[in-house]
Task: structure prediction
Amino acid sequence: MAVIGYVDDADFTAWATARGVTLTGTASVLLTRALDFVELQQYKGTRTDEAQALSWPRTGVYIDGVLQSDGVVPALVKELQMRVAADMDAGADPLKVKAQQVKSKRVEGAVSIEYMDGSYAPDRSGQVSLLLAKLTAAGGGNQFSVVRG
Result:
């Protein structure tokens, strides 16, 4: 049993099993790769300690209008890491370089390839996008700075 980032590998396996997800990859590897993605995000608030290794815990974070306790990693962060890991196990990879899907390909003397407009393979599930919207600065919501002069 090892904690990778915010999640214990045994908890991840139990989480997947409870949702009927059969993992084909190694839990620790999936969690490590998912952590790489999770740590690239621009989260609300500020780190509790500027010397901390990971992005969480944070200070001054509101989720669904509720101020989160300083020094605590919200359950949504743990769920985000597990959902990204499960998506990666299913073949999605938010860390990969995106390439357009081929619309048509023709080989006659010279090669001709036409790409579909705006066609990128999905890199994460809708659940991951919804969790990111609640946790990141780009997610909108009721988070703003007030400065008195």
Observations:
- The helical segments are 9-18, 27-38, 75-89, 126-135.
- The radius of gyration is 19 Å.
- The first helix runs from residue 9 to 18.
